[in-house]
Amino acid sequence: MKFELQAEARDSFGRSGSRRLRRMGRLPAIVYGGGQAPSPITLDHNRIIHEMAREAFYTSILTVKIGKEAESVVVKAVQRHPHKPLVMHVDFQRIVADEEITLNVPIHFIGEAEAIGVKDQGGVVEHMETDVEITCLPRHLPAYLELDVTALELNGLMHLSDIKFPEGVVSVALEHNQDLPVVAVNPPRREEEEEAVVEEGEVAAGEVPTTDEDEGAAKPDAEDSSD
To answer: Beta partners for 171?
Structure first.
């Protein structure tokens, strides 16, 4: 999937400058790396929000056009508003064909509903990791990684080493001998089972059990209400 972003050079800096740009519907951003000076830019905020709705936006080589010039970049950081659906700032890193890049790539879990521990043994899937930090040359950058959990049984566990990494793609954690757990099939939580039992044993709607004291206290109220 190709992403092409139209940008403009930015000459407003600082908080006040950024606020002014955002009021105009522009998103402050910066392009850095590749042995060149950083380039402050602005982008159309609504357009970026639209593109960010696609998962591949974060793991693709994007083209940023500034006037007649075009640069190949990847997304390195996104700053969002803590309460509103707004993007506040984006960092883009320039891509050099023969230089490795490091990015977080999402994991797509295959066969969760058909997993032995789920379908036959009543377990539930738990994700310990949903993405993987990888290093590779730009031409080897994958949009996502896949992990087939169909054979995973109850109380079973899969690690980073169970993922088949494409050619030229390396897990940063595995390179540091950290074979992190990624996904497991666990028994249902006890709280969920207890809640189910409580629900089954609840008094039918409208039937509220009362004690002798409650009944005695209720009579004067009934009399008072008739006055």
So the answer is: 134
Closest of 144, 177, 176, 185 to residue 163, by C-alpha:
144
Q: How confident is the model at residue 57 (pLDDT cuts 50, 70, 90)?
A: very high
Describe the strand order of the beta sheet including 157-159 as a list of residue ranges.
124-127, 181-186, 157-159
Looking at the fold, whether 185 and 109 belong to one and the same domain comes out as yes
User: Is 60 exceeded by the pLDDT of residue 222?
Assistant: no
Residue 9 belongs to a domain? yes
The answer to the question of residue 202 being in a domain is: no
pTM for this predicted structure? 0.79
Are 40 and 117 part of one and the same domain? no
Q: Residue 71's domain is classified under what CATH number?
A: 2.40.240.10
CA separation for the pair 138, 141 (Å, rounded): 5
Nearest CA-CA partner of 147 in 139, 156, 138, 155: 156
Does position 198 have pLDDT exceeding 70, yes or no?
Answer: no
The answer as to whether 198 is a domain residue is no
Range of the domain at 19: 4-96
pLDDT-derived band at 191, boundaries 50, 70, 90: low
Measure the CA angle with vertex 125, ends 122 and 128; round to 5°. Answer: 150
3-state secondary structure of 201: helix
Contact 139, 97 (CB under 8 A): yes
What are the start-end ranges of the E strands in 95-169? 101-110, 124-127, 131-136, 145-148, 157-159
Residue 197 has pLDDT above 60, yes or no: no
